[in-house]
Amino acid sequence: QAQLVESGGGSVQAGGSLRLSCAASGRTFSTYVMGWFRQAPGKERELVATISWTTYTGGHTYYADSVKGRFTISRDNAKNTVYLLMNSLKPEDTAVYYCAARSRGGSSYYANDYDYWGQGTQVTVSA
User: Fold this and answer.
1) Count of alpha carbons within 13 Å of 119, Cβ hemisphere only?
2) Coil, strand or helix: which one is 82?
3) First CA to last CA across the chain, in angstroms?
4) Which residue in 122, 107, 5, 21 sits closest to 62, CA to CA?
5) Are strands 58-63 and 71-76 parallel, antiparallel or unpaired?
6) C-alpha 98: how far from its chain's center?
């Protein structure tokens, strides 16, 4: 059974950094589009970043404007793991962060397009 498990969340002061990890198991996700979403209290789940992969072109990334230049998504296909490095964190980055995998198609903004989800990890940024 395919499973995604996030780790690395926690509490940090504004300006600090965290690195989230998403370990995949149950199948090989190397060709899947992998994404990070987040959901703050009272708000809808929103896309943070995605990374795709092809043998010929490597990884392609997408970032939401709100995190561009501060967050970096990467993947290690040998370890079936995706990472989200978050620098210069702001209080508005506070949310539960979810890892997601899409088996077909390219990167998508829409959560419904993703087939597998992790349980989420809390990130809290204090001012």
Assistant:
1) 7
2) strand
3) 40
4) 107
5) unpaired
6) 6
